[in-house]
Amino acid sequence: MKLSGKRIVVGITGGIAAYKTIEFIRLLRKAEADVRVVLTPSAAEFVTPLTLQAISGNAVSQSLLDPQAELAMGHIELAKWADAIVIAPASADFIARFTVGMANDLLSTICLATNAPIFLAPAMNQQMFHQQITQQNLTALQARGIQLIGPNNGVQACGDIGAGRMSEPTEIFAVLSDFFTRDQDLQGVKVVITAGPTREAIDPVRYISNHSSGKMGFAIAENFAKRGAGVTLITGPVTLSTPNNVTRIDVLSAKEMWQAALENAVKNQIFIGCAAVADYRVADIADQKIKKSADEMLLKLVKNPDIIADVGHLTENRPFTVGFAAETQHLSDYAKEKLKRKNLDMVCANDVSEGQVFNADDNALQLFWKEGSKTLSLKSKTELAADLVNEIVERYQKTL
Ligand code: C5P
């Protein structure tokens, strides 16, 4: 079963359509999903916790400030536990609060604290639905990756006719089960990816770094996760949000990244080094802020460990290892040399001689492996990541 064992948080907000959510939960349970219900205070005016407890098979969570409930499963735990969150019905009030990032009740807090994909089934009076502010809120949520289900058109509980009826339980169920079957072909495969720049301290307030945005590594992580792989993303300081279902480890320096990478590499089947790791670090980091004095100053730098080379040369539990190479000339020769010297299974080479790659949204790659090569033409980093993941998986599977 597609939903069997999946952990679903069902959030119910205040609206008459809440009675239909009981049927949706029943469908989830029939499909052997593990369901936890979270009620907003006004939802409890429409459906009772007792009914929902009986239908879902678990205690219902209602308050952020209930010590007993927090003991059983705290709000952050619940946010982490979920494979998906479905809010049905999602009232205009909840949608507004969620859009601006409020955390003033249990459900909105869970939504803010989770990494899981969130589905919203709006339900409200057609006039409320058509209001410009509601439409703006829904557009903003969609832009953040929140998936809308419905609403449908038709007769409303208030007597109006129009858009705003909550989708039927079977429709909501179909969207969710579709989501869990889509491209989940990499379940069981564990991948670790490094991304972003590293930051090498000079003194407590200054550092050496580079322009890497982390976009390519994050796009690869997102694609692997969408296909059901277990993904650990070790990232330097970037401003990107963590893709759904990805475990993120934040680091600053190359040494920190090296430690996290080596620790995780042996526990994963695929290692992808996408980070722009600083080759050198400051030999002696000043304890105090360096004062301005002489016209010139010298910084002594020492070599950082080469993370991907160390992973490539692991003798036990070595993962399938993929590196990147940014080159301005002799792309193919340098990439092949890196493949050999770092003992990699694949090198993804960027030609950075013309135009921007760092921080850009588009990229092209030339892939090299021992027996062959392939060019992936210029496209968005998200689309490129999808193609690249296909190539990596194809080569990885040949090693099994
Ligand atoms: O040697 P170069 O820096 O060109 O190699 C790039 C590849 O090596 C990338 O995959 C990058 O993530 C990785 N790298 C590393 N540790 C370093 C330097 C580069 O893992 N210290």
From TrEMBL:
UniProt cross-references to InterPro entries, sorted A to Z: CoaB-like_sf (IPR035929), CoaBC (IPR005252), DNA/pantothenate-metab_flavo_C (IPR007085), Flavin_trans-like (IPR036551), Flavoprotein (IPR003382)
Cofactor: FMN; Mg(2+)
Biological process annotations from GO: coenzyme A biosynthetic process; pantothenate catabolic process
Free-text comment on the cofactor: Binds 1 FMN per subunit.
Residue span of region Phosphopantothenoylcysteine decarboxylase: 1-190
Pfam families: DFP, Flavoprotein
Binding site for CTP: G273, C274, A275, D279, K289, P305, D306, I307, I308, F324, K338, K342
Pathway where it operates: Cofactor biosynthesis; coenzyme A biosynthesis; CoA from (R)-pantothenate: step 2/5; Cofactor biosynthesis; coenzyme A biosynthesis; CoA from (R)-pantothenate: step 3/5
Enzyme Commission number(s) from the entry: 4.1.1.36, 6.3.2.5
Region annotation Phosphopantothenate--cysteine ligase: where it falls in the sequence: 191-400
Active site: C158
Domain DNA/pantothenate metabolism flavoprotein C-terminal: 186-394
Catalysed conversion reaction: N-[(R)-4-phosphopantothenoyl]-L-cysteine + H(+) = (R)-4'-phosphopantetheine + CO2; (R)-4'-phosphopantothenate + L-cysteine + CTP = N-[(R)-4-phosphopantothenoyl]-L-cysteine + CMP + diphosphate + H(+)
Alphabetical UniProt keywords: Decarboxylase, Flavoprotein, FMN, Ligase, Lyase, Magnesium, Metal-binding, Multifunctional enzyme
GO cellular component: phosphopantothenoylcysteine decarboxylase complex
GO molecular function: FMN binding; metal ion binding; phosphopantothenate--cysteine ligase activity; phosphopantothenoylcysteine decarboxylase activity
Residue span(s) of domain Flavoprotein: 6-177
Database matches in NCBIfam families: coaBC_dfp
Family membership: In the C-terminal section; belongs to the PPC synthetase family. In the N-terminal section; belongs to the HFCD (homo-oligomeric flavin containing Cys decarboxylase) superfamily.
UniProt function note: Catalyzes two steps in the biosynthesis of coenzyme A. In the first step cysteine is conjugated to 4'-phosphopantothenate to form 4-phosphopantothenoylcysteine, in the latter compound is decarboxylated to form 4'-phosphopantotheine.
Protein name per Swiss-Prot or TrEMBL: Coenzyme A biosynthesis bifunctional protein CoaBC
Organism name: Rodentibacter genomosp. 2
Encoding gene (name): coaBC
